[in-house]
Amino acid sequence: MTTQNQTKNSIVRFLNINTSGQTGGRNLPLWRQLLLQLIAIAILASVMFPIMYVVTLSFSSKTTRPSSLELFPKEISFVAYQQVLDKPTGNPVTFIELLRNSFMLSMGVGMAALAIAVTAAYAFSRFKFAMREVLMVLVFIPLLMPAVGLSTPLYLLLNQVQVKECKDGATAIQPFTTCEDGSKGKLQFNLRDSLFGVGIAMTASALPFAVWNLKGYLDTIPRELEEAAAIDGADANQTFWQIVIPLAIPQLAVTFFLGFIGHWQEFVLTWLFLSQPKDYTLAMTLYNMTGQYANAIPWNRFAAMAVIVALPVAIVYIALQRNIVGGLTTGSVKG
């Protein structure tokens, strides 16, 4: 009996060994550490399962979906990748054009949202003006709504801006001018059906988060630095560009890359707004490959395109993961 009690006590002591590596603070017993590891492994398996399946499918030379579950490739074939790079869709658009459109949209939205958001965030952080709190709430409200809920008003708004050629050769820019002869004119440009128009809509959806994220970070910059610069004779513009902006560069970089990554795979707005194949993006092309029936989908090419679309985002996120998490944490210290 004594031996059994000693064995149980030894097991209990072993399972309660402190694995935190800290002499102070909260202990982390071995049994809890093992439980957390098992939970982490389960989460990792659930996350990696679809990724491994898609990657394995992309290395297959067969266009049909495998009948059995395959998580590791039985063959290494780059035929699907070659086909996607040569001719991604049946439309007369090349992979380079698709890549350029996606890159221009993501880069343009990231830069535009950053330029507007940093000035708005600085105003909210430093200046006291009427209805400041109300405006901050209004900026936050779009974050509570799904992106598709904002697409209809944006669609109607941007669709009003059109350039038309009148019968007499004159150019009318609606809604500012119309054809004098009373005709509708020939449509030359529609802001809604263009990459520029989609960029405006995507920038509008990216601004609320960018403003709140930067405002929280700018609150952490000591005001004494700006007061010292003012005493030395610096005006408001010099203080903003030479004091605040250099100190906020880490968070500016994080905000830009979050905007870039978030809109690299944007599908809803581009699919609703764009109708010309020359303006399609990689995400739109990936959806076009699904077709109407599942048995008609070239699964290996679909998987290859999915890997190609996700790869830039994965690389950028992995490279900047520490900065992104650290920047978000720093920006949330003050509200």
What does this structure look like?
The protein is mainly α. It has a domain at 72-146 and 189-331: MetI-like fold, CATH 1.10.3720. It contains 13 helices and three strands; from the N terminus they run H-H-H-H-H-H-E-E-E-H-H-H-H-H-H-H. It has a three-stranded antiparallel beta sheet, with no helix packed on it. The longest helix is centred in the last third of the chain and has 33 residues, at 299-331. The protein is flat, with a radius of gyration of 27 Å. The termini are far apart. The model is unreliable at 331-335 (pLDDT under 50).
Q: What is the fourth-level CATH superfamily of the domain at 72-146 and 189-331?
A: MetI-like
CA(first)-CA(last) distance = 61 Å
Work out the helix count.
13
Strand order of the largest sheet: 2-1-3
CATH fold type of the domain at 72-146 and 189-331: MetI-like fold
Query: Would you tell me the structural class of the helices and strands?
Result: mainly alpha
Produce the secondary structure layout.
Elements: H1 2-15, H2 30-58, H3 79-86, H4 95-126, H5 132-140, H6 147-159, E1 162-165, E2 171-174, E3 186-190, H7 195-218, H8 223-231, H9 236-247, H10 249-264, H11 268-273, H12 282-288, H13 299-331
